[in-house]
Amino acid sequence: MSAKFEFELKATDGVARTGVISTPRGEIRTPAFMPVGTAATVKAMMPESVRETGADILLGNTYHLMLRPGAERIDRLGGLHRFMNWERPILTDSGGFQVMSLAGLRKLTEEGVTFKSHIDGSKHELTPERSMEIQRLLGSDIVMCFDECPALPANNEAVAESMRLSMRWAARSKEAFGDRPGHALFGIMQGGVTPELREESAVALREIGFDGYAIGGLAVGEGQEAMFGVLDYAPGFLPENRPRYLMGVGKPDDIVGAVKRGVDMMDCVLPSRSGRTGQVFTRHGVVNIKNARHADDPRPLDEACACPACRNYSRAYLHHVFRAQEMISGMLLTWHNLHYYQELMAGMRRAISDGDFAVWEAEFHQARAEGDIEPV
Fold first, then answer.
1. What does the pLDDT look like over 313-365, one tens digit per residue?
2. Which residue out of 13, 147, 211, 267 is catalytically annotated?
């Protein structure tokens, strides 16, 4: 394991990339999907089970952890890694996205954001400096600078104003982060769906200088076509020798499209949240296990999948435990979804290394177009 944070680009195919991020807590193979452990847990999963799916890194949430149980408490208990029994790398977001969603409970100024807790109504303040302090107390390996993430659609003037505020906050985040060997600070590009604003943001971030760069402000209501439109140019504004992280994405075809356009890292609650609500992702598309057609189906969810849900249980059983609201349903379906996402990433890493990403992508879309196979 590396004693410091490093990124090595191993291969490219078109603009798709594969590489390795080295940290003191282990390597992260890219393209990488980060399961979301919002409140120091990936819902319905044990940490060792998450690792078995192939995950190299988890995401924790600054906003939720600062409210409950509190960053200072986690620090006293040995840091987030020990607290949640995950000794591999952890990335923490800055809290900006969650605060954005509290539009009726927040007040935004140049200094930062004051807001009321969604839990008990208590008043809190997040500034770039406080966000860096919280993430330091948590002990996260990759820290995100504090930013504002405007919801789309929005007019250019509002997006520009928000982006420039985020760039000022990025500079303050960098200063507050200080010198922390082995830990990394990522800047976050904003600018909506406007190329000129995205480029302006990227220039500002490069001048400040970060260990990695995120593409923020997408998957917030603009739709896939608009998101891909931004990704057609935005990664090219960022340094080639640093990781590129697309925040909050997404569905399997979103992820494949993002990797095709030069993205290295992604996160999303979708595979775990969908597992708890009976939506399953497979090579042949989405399966809704709640549907009655599965009640007598002896087949696995996906005959090519080696996860416990597919290896040991039938669709009929999974349908039954979901309808009966048994806890094992969320556990098995979440495990399957996270396993599928990690297989997706591994497949893309191999394809990029072998120089046949276009062939792999065509097969991915063809299998999904065929659809889920009806019971015989």
1. 999 999 999 999 999 999 999 999 999 999 999 999 999 999 999 999 999 99
2. 267
Distance CA 244, CA 189 (A): 10
d(CA 206, CA 237): 9
Q: Is 120 a catalytic residue?
A: no
Q: Which domain holds residue 342?
A: 275-370
| Closest among 149, 345, 173, 137 to 247, alpha carbons compared | 149
> One of 13, 93, 211, 264 is an active-site residue; which one?
93
| Both tokens assigned to 58 | 């988890």
What are the tens digits of pLDDT across the range 9-30?
A: 999 999 999 999 999 999 999 9
Summarize pLDDT for 188-219 with one digit per residue, the tens: 999 999 999 999 999 999 999 999 999 999 98
Is 211 assigned a catalytic role? no
Report CA dihedral (33, 36, 41, 42) to the nearest 10 degrees.
-70
- Is residue 199 located within the same domain as residue 304? no
166, 37: one domain: yes
